[in-house]
Design a protein that fits this description.
Layout: E1 10-16, H1 22-33, E2 41-46, H2 50-59, E3 66-70, H3 77-87, E4 92-96, E5 100-102, H4 106-113, E6 119-130, E7 158-160, E8 168-172, H5 173-179, H6 198-209, E9 214-227, H7 234-255, H8 257-260, H9 262-284, H10 290-316
Parallel strand pairs: 1-2, 1-4, 2-3, 6-9
Antiparallel strand pairs: 4-8, 5-9, 6-8, 7-9
Length: 336
């Protein structure tokens, strides 16, 4: 443990799975190594891809601050993160997407959040980097979570939240001791369907295990997340919102609809109606994309609701399952 008043040590976990993102992975690691508050280590967890693992081992064989690991669990992001947690040595474990780069003070703001011993998690702000160079005019900011980014409707500043967003987040190690790791069977697992919500389920489970736990988002802890061209199209938007509904059904089954949908109720009754009004107003003022943004919001809500209904039926019939396992130190890992 750090001495009183001393910022905690931070391990950064980057889960990787494909050589198609080779340059993105190198950029992500470089952004961690350039932090104003250095990370204790960077752990690259490779998801069942021996070719990529071998290539990364060669790339970082002389780097004492970068370790390359194989996902020790089933294929998928949750098991990869759990492998990184188990092998990490830091008092705080931070997560960065493999196609994102962190600003220089990212870890400094994360570490500062843990001055309060009640804080168990700190997340940041994720800005989209559109492959086309600009946001599609039909794409509503209220749905930036579709592409893994911070969306309109989240409060600004450093604020208390129900859950952090997984691609730009950190947790105190005690959080995993109390609640276990990320659940497998909820998030992405190599399937073509872009599922999610594993960090939401973990955060709710953590708050139940530690009712005094404080979870924060500090919007000064910024990363920039690449959005490939394929995700700028409405087809992906529709697929991702449907998958979110499926995932939310699993979360609600795990933690109950009260907590599982608490933030979503505020989002759908306040944030999204305001977005529709804004889009229609822009359309009336002949601003590009206004009507299409309003239509996309309505379509997104309906598609997510459809996914939630289907997911709920499947869950009741026992057609879907997930599991949560304790996260202990892996071979070569230590709690520090």
């Amino acid at each position: 443990m750090s001495a009183a008043g001393t910022p905690p040590t931070v391990s950064v976990v980057v889960c990787v799975y494909t050589e198609e993102r080779w340059e993105d992975i190198l950029a992500a690691v470089s952004s961690v190594r350039a932090q104003s508050r250095p990370a204790l280590e960077t752990l690259l967890v490779v998801d069942h891809n021996e070719g990529l693992r071998d290539r990364l081992l060669k790339e970082y064989k002389e780097a004492g601050d970068v370790r390359v690991l194989a996902n020790a669990g089933p294929r998928g992001l949750s098991a990869g993160r759990n492998t990184g947690i188990a092998a990490s040595r830091g008092e705080v474990v931070a997560f960065l997407d493999d196609d994102a780069v962190a600003e220089r003070d990212w870890l400094r703001y994360f570490a500062a959040g843990y001055a309060d011993p009640a804080v168990m998690a700190v997340g940041g702000r994720t800005e989209p980097v559109w492959a086309s160079g600009r946001r599609p005019d039909w794409f509503p900011e209220e749905f930036d979570w579709v592409v893994g980014c911070t969306y309109r409707g989240l409060p600004p500043g450093r604020v208390r939240v129900r859950n952090v967003l997984g691609g730009n987040a950190s947790f105190r190690r005690e959080a995993f001791d109390a609640a276990g790791g990320f659940a497998t069977g909820i998030g992405r697992d190599g399937d073509k369907r872009p599922l999610g919500c594993e960090e939401t389920e973990l955060c709710i489970r953590l708050s139940r295990a530690r009712p005094d736990a404080v979870l924060l988002i500090d919007d000064r802890a910024v990363i920039h997340h690449r959005v490939p061209g394929a995700r700028e199209h409405f087809g992906y938007f529709r697929t991702r919102t449907y998958a979110e509904g499926l995932s939310k059904a699993l979360v609600a089954r795990s933690v109950g609809a009260g907590k599982g949908l608490e933030s979503e109720r505020r989002y759908t009754t306040r944030v999204l109606p305001a977005g529709v009004v804004r889009g229609l107003r822009d359309a009336a003022l002949a601003r590009p994309g206004g009507a299409r943004r309003a239509g996309a919001i309505v379509a997104g809500v309906l598609t997510a609701a459809g996914g939630y209904v289907v997911g709920s039926v499947r869950a009741r019939r026992g057609g879907t399952a997930f599991s949560v396992a304790p996260v202990g130190p892996a071979e070569g890992g230590a709690h520090g």
